[in-house]
Fold this protein.
Amino acid sequence: MANRHLSRSLAMQVLFEWDFHGYHLERIDQTIKQVAEEFGPGLEEQSFVEALVLGVIKHHDKLDQIIEKAAPDWPIAQIAIVDRNVLRIGLFELLFGSKQDVPARVAINESIELAKTFGGENSGRFVNGVLGTVYKEMGEPGKDDIPAKQRRKIEIAYEDMPIERLGGAVVYSREGGDLELALVHDVFGYWTLSKGHIEEGEDLQTGTIREVKEELNLEAVIEGELGQNEYIATHPEKGKLRKQVNYFLTQAQSKKDLKLEAKGGLDKAEWFALTEIPDLRMYDDVLPFLTKAINQLKQ
């Protein structure tokens, strides 16, 4: 609806001011009123503008964590002020809005249009990539409502997708005689395995050890291969790509050194006894590698 689109535009402008002033405005309600009077004189009511602005401000820490998870190459401070506030609006509608009033695809498309209108040349594509990544993490709600013909039109051939190599690790410790595994927790509420990008010219094992050190602050030694997983992801700038993750069984040299280093999308790292693992919320695609590692460690 035209009023909803206008309301999103006004909300973005209010949030721009809020962001520009260091996440602080003396009178948010007054700013909303002023922006609406100047840029939305035909708007019948401001309730949707207020809901978006106040919702984004209330949840902005959580929204920013998710943005950094979906766009790990872009710390929130490095994203253009327009783009990050458009993303916050889109994410707020995706995660906290009414799915009946605003279906997921509508929220994404509206955000893309906002980015194209107020952002730079590549803003629309960037916003599409980030929100598309989150949409997939959510299980693509409403996907079946998109006509199959339209879905085929936007799909990229599998063999044409670029490949990104990653190294992952099941990190364990036997200090004190107890077998424990080090896992990381992401902003979507899942416990998962440590993994990261393998640099150009870097071999898989060297890159995996480096990533474990950078992410968990652990010196570790690889003891064996656990296998490879591949999945399709959406990069904000590169579009769809194939991520190939090679997992390794890895022993930590000192359990006490575990410390999650600053990294977008992750909020904590902990050691777990084997008896605690079944109760954790985990991604299905890491379970085979975790199970294989545990079976090897029990032998």
In short: Residues 23 and 57 are 8 Å apart (CA to CA). Confidence is low (pLDDT under 50) at residues 146-154. The chain has nine helices and seven strands. The first strand starts at residue 163 and ends at 173.
